[in-house]
Write a structure and sequence with these properties.
Low-confidence stretches: none
Shape: globular
Largest sheet: 5 strands, parallel
Structural class: alpha/beta
Strand content: 5-15%
Number of helices: 8
Helix content: 40-55%
Radius of gyration: 16 Å
Order of helices and strands: EEHHHHEHEHEHEHE
Mean pLDDT: 91
Length: about 180
């Protein structure tokens, strides 16, 4: 019986696509990378990380530097990050039904906590930040092992192809939302 729900944050709980695009384009200008239009996001969202990097002209060695810059700029723009309509109601309903709610995201724990507190959503039992965008399955597996959980009792809720790929590797069920990235 499913009793543990793990949520991705950006694109699943919060609508950070617009601010994320704004931040990316600001960094792209600073670093001489290809800028994006909102319409580019749909096609990029269907591609694995390596292909996204190829399209954007980003080398794999640049990713840690760029990820750090993105996270710093997200912290500066916390007030612009909005919870999706009705998501708060959904999360409180799940908590009331006694599901154990957690977040695993590539966003920083401090940014996630600040957004949740600002939106009166301090209902998650754990928030885990995955620094490795290629290895989200590792943090999922670490989370499961650390908490002594049975994979058959867990569902991950995410919005990207990499969430699906991570759950396949971790052998965890996934629900993919259609309103995110």
């Amino acid at each position: 019986m499913v009793n543990t729900l793990i949520f991705d944050f950006d694109g699943t709980i919060v609508d950070s696509i617009g601010i994320g695009l704004e931040i990316y384009n600001e960094i792209a200008e600073e670093c001489n990378l290809k800028k994006l239009n909102p319409s580019d996001l749909i096609e990029l969202g269907k591609r694995p990380i390596v292909e996204k990097c190829n399209v954007l002209g980003i080398s794999l060695t640049q990713i840690p530097f760029l990820a750090h810059k993105v996270n710093e700029k997200f912290k500066e723009n916390i007030s612009k990050i909005k919870v999706f309509d009705r998501m708060k109601e959904v999360l409180y309903t799940l908590e009331k039904e006694k599901y154990s709610l957690h977040i695993i995201s590539s966003n920083t724990e401090s940014t996630i906590k600040a957004v949740l507190q600002r939106n009166d959503l301090d209902i998650f039992k754990g928030i885990y930040s995955s620094k490795n965008i290629f290895g989200k399955h590792h943090i999922i597996n670490t989370f499961i092992k650390k908490n002594g959980l049975d994979k058959s009792n867990i569902v991950y809720i995410g919005d990207e192809l990499r969430d699906v790929e991570a759950c396949k590797k971790a052998k965890v069920k996934i629900i993919s939302v259609t309103w995110g990235g």
